[in-house]
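Appendix C: a fully annotated inverse folding record. The material below is reproduced so that readers can follow the format used throughout the book. The structure is listed first as tokens, followed by the designed sequence.
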């Protein structure tokens, strides 16, 4: 379905350097980036342009826009979000959504990767020593930094800072005008190798989905859509919170299949039972 086709990658931040070779190697896809595509029009991390839609819808809009500009019927886009991990609010996480749209076959396939592998950080600083300390702990200069007047202001904002000379120059400029300065990690993919690794993991997940075929219609993307709890305790035989079965569903023909005991356990240890170990 995908072999030897042309694929547009919706990016202006060099994501094609990660996504392209992986898809080329797996499906012999001819990947390209369309001239004139501006992902910043859908929202920027620094807030000059607000992201008005949720991440999945934003990724979809990016993909469709690049496909329209390039007159290509196969496209891929990603959207990243940063903030507290959904299950551990004290740890920052990077969530990457990767969407592939195939108009020729009426398909939309989405992969997610949530990772605590991120240097996402920001700080209000006064001295260059504070800035140097922040830079050291966030992986500068291999990871870019952004300096600005304040968190709320887009006035006097400096991006693409990837060397110590520029870091000091922009700091000195801002320091002559303001009592404090706001520094943040540059989360755009081309300036953040750590984020690139998360995008790479999401791409691998997407490849698995593209190779996972529906048993009824053979469409790719056949995957788990729901985990059902209720695995019985081996001691009291009552249902536990552990997974009893996975529900697979095709997003093309809606065929559903259940897989019992997906973790190869037919009974749960009593230590995970709310009755035996309340």
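Designed amino acids, in order:
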């Amino acid at each position: 379905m995908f072999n030897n086709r042309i694929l547009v990658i919706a990016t202006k931040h060099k994501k094609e350097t990660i996504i392209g070779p992986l898809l080329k190697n797996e499906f012999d896809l001819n990947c390209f980036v369309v001239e004139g595509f501006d992902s910043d029009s859908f929202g920027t991390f620094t807030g000059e342009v607000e992201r008005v839609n949720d991440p999945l819808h934003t990724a979809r809009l990016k993909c469709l826009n690049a496909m329209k500009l390039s007159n290509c019927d196969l496209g891929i886009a990603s959207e990243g979000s940063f903030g507290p991990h959904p299950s551990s609010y004290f740890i920052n996480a990077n969530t990457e959504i990767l969407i592939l749209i195939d108009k020729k076959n009426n398909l939309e396939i989405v992969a997610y990767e949530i990772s605590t592998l991120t240097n996402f950080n920001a700080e209000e600083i006064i001295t260059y020593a504070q800035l140097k300390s922040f830079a050291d702990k966030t992986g500068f200069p291999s990871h870019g930094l952004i300096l600005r007047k304040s968190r709320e202001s887009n006035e006097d904002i400096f991006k693409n800072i990837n060397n110590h000379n520029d870091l000091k120059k922009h700091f000195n400029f801002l320091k002559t005008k303001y009592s404090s300065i706001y520094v943040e990690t540059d989360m755009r993919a081309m300036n953040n190798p750590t984020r690139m690794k998360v995008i790479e993991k999401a791409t691998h997940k997407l490849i698995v989905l593209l190779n996972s075929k529906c048993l009824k219609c053979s469409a790719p993307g056949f995957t788990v859509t729901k985990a059902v709890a209720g695995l019985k305790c081996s001691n009291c035989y009552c249902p536990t919170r552990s997974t009893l079965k996975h529900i697979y569903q095709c997003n093309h023909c809606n065929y559903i299949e259940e897989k019992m005991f997906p973790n190869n356990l037919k009974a749960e240890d009593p230590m995970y039972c709310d009755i035996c170990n309340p």
